[in-house]
Amino acid sequence: MALLIIEKRGVVVCLCLVFVLFQVSINGEVYKVGDDAGWTRTIIGNVNYTDWANNKTFQLGDVIVFEYNPEFHNVVQVTPGEYRSCEVSSPIATYTSGNDSIAIKTEGHHFYVCGVPDHCEAGQKVDINVLAAPSPVAISPPGATAPPSKVPARPRNDARPNNYMQLGWVVVQLLMLAGVLFRI
Ligand SMILES: [Cu+2]
């Protein structure tokens, strides 16, 4: 009986560990484009969006926030060619709220410009280059010798509302796993 309790405690510890690892892996960073300057004309905000993006390491699950006055600016996702030429004819997506949160769901380059005439030409454009996704965390059956996890050491402290659903799903999965293990 005592052995069983110790075993159960071990399983609980394992589940907690798995939960923590999941939490680390699914909480994306939130990046406000231009930091304090926000999304504006480069001459007004004194901001270089190329430099701003080059100093970041974007990953899948990160959220890019464009904050701006919608009377003067907008956000248009464009093709690489349109990004270079600043001639926007077939936008991939257009955002106009003034506080647009865009979750990054695909790897590679994501090009955004301001669609107001002359703003892109003046440098109000940004290339969000998203690196390949980190390896997913594998759940090993309790008792099996698990290889060291490949969760990135990068701290991810900002739990944002858009992650709460994912967290909820993880909790449900863990509870189901616990149900199986404990034969509830
Ligand atoms: Cu603009």
Automatic annotation (TrEMBL):
Pfam families: Cu_bind_like (PF02298). This is Phytocyanin domain-containing protein. InterPro entries: Cupredoxin, Phytocyanin-like, Phytocyanin_dom. GO terms for molecular function: metal ion binding. Residues 1-28 form the signal peptide. Coiled coil: none annotated. PANTHER family: BLUE COPPER PROTEIN, OS07G0570600 PROTEIN. Residues 29-132 form the Phytocyanin domain. The keyword DNA-binding does not apply. Residues 139-158 are annotated as: Disordered. The keyword Nucleus does not apply. It comes from the Eukaryota. SUPFAM superfamilies: Cupredoxins (SSF49503). Keywords: Glycoprotein, Metal-binding, Signal.
